[in-house]
Amino acid sequence: MPITIVPTRAFADQRPGTAGLRKRVATFRQPHYLENFVQAIVDAVPELRGGSVVIGGDGRFWCTDAARIALRVLAANGVARASVAKDGLLSTPAASMEIRARGATGGLLLTASHNPGGPEGDFGVKYNVTSGGQAAESLTERIHARARELHRYKTLEGEPDVELDELGRQALGPMEVEVFDPVPAYADALERLFDFDRIRAALRAGLRVHFDAMSAVTGPFAEELLVRRLGLPPSAITNGRPLPDFGGRHPDPSPQTCPQLVALASRNDAPDLIAASDGDGDRNLIMGRGCLVSPGDSLALLAAHAHRLPGYCGGLAGVARSMPTSRAVDRVADRLGIPCYETPTGWRYFCNLLEAGRITLCGEESFGTSSAHAREKDGLWAVLAWLDLLAATRRSVAELLHHHWREHGRDYFAREDWRLADAALGQRVIDDLRAAAPTLAGRSVGGLSVASADSFRYLDPVDGSTSKDQGLRIHYADGSRAVLRLSGTDTAGATLRVYLERHAPPGADHDRVPLDALGEVAVATHALAQLRELTGLAGPKQVV
Ligand code: G16
Fold first, then answer.
1. Protein residue with its CA nearest to atom 7 in ligand 1
2. Which of 233, 396, 528, 538 is surrounded by the fewest CB atoms within 10 Å?
3. pLDDT at residue 1 is higher than 70
4. CATH number for the domain running over 3-180
């Protein structure tokens, strides 16, 4: 058998971040770089030998090349079976569901998510475990440790490449490869969660939808669900064809990167629901006529109305949000009498809770929302959940938001991104802030005084593992809050994220511009954390 053992050098930079290993395409294309990382995964997960994997990605530049390279390393290492998505196109939530449904040992997701694509852009590899969920911190540490010490990897040479555009079974040396179409199974699973008859009736009655697939992976999935199964006109989807460079756009569904959607939402004749998802289909942007639904509000509203959605009418076991995410869902959980968990940033921290049946819905401020149907966040799931909610209540997005705020109050929320060119400076800034945190309690700036400040430490209630230093929290005496942490998805420099939050109780003014409502919290936080002094910057690069 043409298995070759290739000498490599250890790559010390192969440390997975918040969601897998993300680097510039040029870094990944260095000789042996991807092979080294895949070998490290196989060595860290010995069950892969003789086991099976699901492979696919977001269709970005170099995705199919990477799939072929990875397949050769897996085949040479004795992986028995690989299920590869046709043309390598597999959204992250669909990958999670396929891994679970097939009982695969794990999955390789070739994606840098919402990061830019193309030859000058980013690439990424994520390993998901047999539950479909993201690798836990302990496993990513093992993979990193192995990647740093490898001196050789195995690959298969002299065999023709797998034909990724041919559905059906093929062989790659000793490994059986199945090229499959992931769209029908994903669409079937989502159809079981929502009332498609009710949505179709609402669409016939005039409900209008606009979905931007951002030239990324969700195009074919959205076409099946929204056009073929729900009957929307094809024109309801824009940028539905996946492109390797995402059409030159940044495939990040946020108001900053989607100004054309914000402009559409502000028109008097705007569709009732305007939505988008990101490069790999796990993030979502939800807007209504004249309004944007902040991710924290989206999670809270979906939890409050879950009983109206067929997949969730039996009630929610619990909910979870990442620590920096607004506490809007906490208020709903309190009202429903269900547990609400606060986890570190990163979907992987929800996975144990989902697996243990402790939560049904979860979400993050970074435009991610999902449920126990998958072990990843799911952009199209969020779009369908909102669509079904509009159909069930016959209310507009704005009416639903205002009704919610009247009941629970409004959690004004914003995230500032302070861009630092030097990654080491980013770490120094966060270390200085951590050291200063204990001295902040009792200090006042403007109208706000600090009740407490600490570094968030998470104790996983399922497996008892702990994760420390997951973000600095400043709690103000009036209940407002600021959180500071370094982004884990940068591929160059560092981004200091500053999250600001303030609750306006029922009866208060809920129609303020969020940045105005948060003005005092921003001023106090900048001063207390000495952000301008420590970063040398005049202010954040962008506010989300
Ligand atoms: C990834 C993770 C998310 C996390 C986000 C945070 O998102 O999957 O769970 O919330 O990163 O990003 P940062 O560390 O930059 O604040 P994605 O969509 O890029 O995979």
1. 19
2. 538
3. no
4. 3.40.120.10
